[in-house]
């Protein structure tokens, strides 16, 4: 199979569409009689072997029937692996915009570019939910709330599929961690599975029933998701999927068992091995099951226009001016102003000098590593954008301050000494997972920097230690990094400086490495003992690797000097994230906390820009004046940040997940609940993830779900609410007023508190609306909440519990502005 036939880590979804001459997408009913008749006619023409070939993804065997090959590309934030495409903000940022129209336009743009590049199947959107702050792929999710994820995911899906391509909704279901992701057994209650983890898919499939759904890696209650008849029944029968299911790449351990259980496109599986002809026949998979799988694949193809609209010759450049403007609009709409003391932002017109510090140039992160990364091409960096916007009236200087979350240059032999005084360290290698007993080999290593087994006689799983002394060449803060495939710990002068695990040094799709970081104060000329331990037992099977890096000269003093000479300082910090890695610590990596603290001490007007995938600890929060959450904002990030800093635009993003105050908050704070014990992780919190957990357990977050400040102020008036027994909806109306002196954008959130007999949480988000208001302007907003969004899963069915329901308007999950109670019977 070629690159365009199967590519990457997810597979296909679609709602049937046709494009009118004017270019307006028109959805076709999933049960369109003509579409189903054409599917039936095609099935009648196919032999049993051809149906089996289609299910096995052997498109060459059915090409004579004019059945197109599925050409796939990862497409959550644009087209991964392609050049001259538009890099949009990561999915979590898209969700932070709280804007379905914007998401639909992003989906349409990605669909347009995908088709123009020769793809008819887009692997996205990802509607997984963030359960814990550890999740390395949280930037690829749509946040912690099932309603928000479902509505943004629906808009993205229908937008993509309006362009005669199929979108893939992934990953079904309860996929929330990267540690042991291929094999972990997830114990989750039936209620949590339906109310939380399946809920976003339920909403997307209701709008796009001929979509495709990708099944996730983990086991769910003992059975691989790819081989679970119960999950296939859920997605097809309960949720109403008419399109096909497909496994995540390398998911499960038996492709034939997957096909028998309900997998439709069964050509992707363990090791990416392509099934041989006949593998699914001869009793291995019932003929009726193969007929159903083939039908679902064809329904998706016909309904979404793949059969009638052959792909064009791939274009070289598909990123239009309009799409670039949309990327900038999305970056702006997703930018969250977390705190803004004394109205520090926007920057005052009296400003004459500005120090920009940190990775703000081409080293600024525009995307997440792995299957969601999109090449930004020629883009405007934050530093460039700030300088352009500042013009000649403001002097803008840049000081690096920190290189951010990257692996450092290997510690050279000249700085190391073995106990015997030779350059380097004494390495002891063990043929066991832990470095105990008699070493299999002992030698002097000039540096610690390897990606293959250093000693030929070692088994597949092995361990090692290195010891000696380190001679600092400078006094002050020293940075150290470890880049392991496995588990490693670095001790310097008896202090553990770096420790942690990585399954891989870099995910195979590339872009960014996954280092571990630490710092320690050292004195030039004063030798200190150094000890390094390593095991590849936690690395991806058959791999190993470790690089001990350092930065002996801190960049912080020069940055502090620059900040002290300016009217204001903007500090950019970052954190690497991506597929096949989780976060072990909530803290910002390396020297970035020290940088912020020292810059803030030198400049009273310090602004921090968090270029991260999600929450981080902020021990310096009380020392700085403003904090901006920029996520990974795609190619429009730089221009958007400049617009927010200087007040050309109102920051209108809101947090799609809760920011914990400490690493012990939220679900997954014990080994059993994250990352699991003995291969099993327990979702003991049930439905209480995200803000529901904080409310239920009375934890005070650092910043709540839905939080985000504006450059103006708003008032929410009194609320009117009523239950419509005929249409089974609750309507709620509120007047929103801009009480400030400039235009701004407010996101009104509506939360419902269910009767005690129904509630598993204190409140749940049931609607939201984003609106832009001129100074002193008011608008009456009416929300219509379907009764379905107030139901609970009980005894295998959805139930609307009679009783009193309290609906409240809010600015975030902790700040209710007005409320009304309605009786639902």
Your description of this structure?
With 825 residues, this protein is α/β, with parallel strands linked by helices. It folds into four domains: 17-320, TIM Barrel (Alpha-Beta Barrel), CATH 3.20.20.300; 322-405 and 556-671, 3-Layer(aba) Sandwich (Rossmann fold), CATH 3.40.50.1700; 413-551, Galactose-binding domain-like (Jelly Rolls, Sandwich), CATH 2.60.120.260; 714-824, Sandwich (Immunoglobulin-like). 20% of the residues lie in helices and 25% in strands. It has 16 helices and 37 strands. The strands form nine sheets. Strands 14, 15, 16, 18, 20, 21 and 23 form a seven-stranded antiparallel sheet that branches. Strand 4, helix 5 and strand 5 form a beta-alpha-beta unit. The longest helix has 17 residues, at 100-116. The N and C termini lie far apart (57 Å). The relative contact order is 0.12.
* Average predicted confidence as pLDDT: 94
- Distance N terminus to C terminus? 57 Å
Uncertain spans: 1-30
Indicate the CATH architecture of the largest domain. Answer: Alpha-Beta Barrel
Strand percent estimate: 25-35%
Number of helices: 16
**Helical content (DSSP H or I, runs of 4+):** 10-25%
Largest beta-sheet characterization: 7 strands, antiparallel
**CATH fold topology of the largest domain:** TIM Barrel
The CATH superfamily label of the largest domain reads Glycoside hydrolase, family 3, N-terminal domain
Structural class: alpha/beta
**Shape call:** globular
Number of β-strand runs: 37
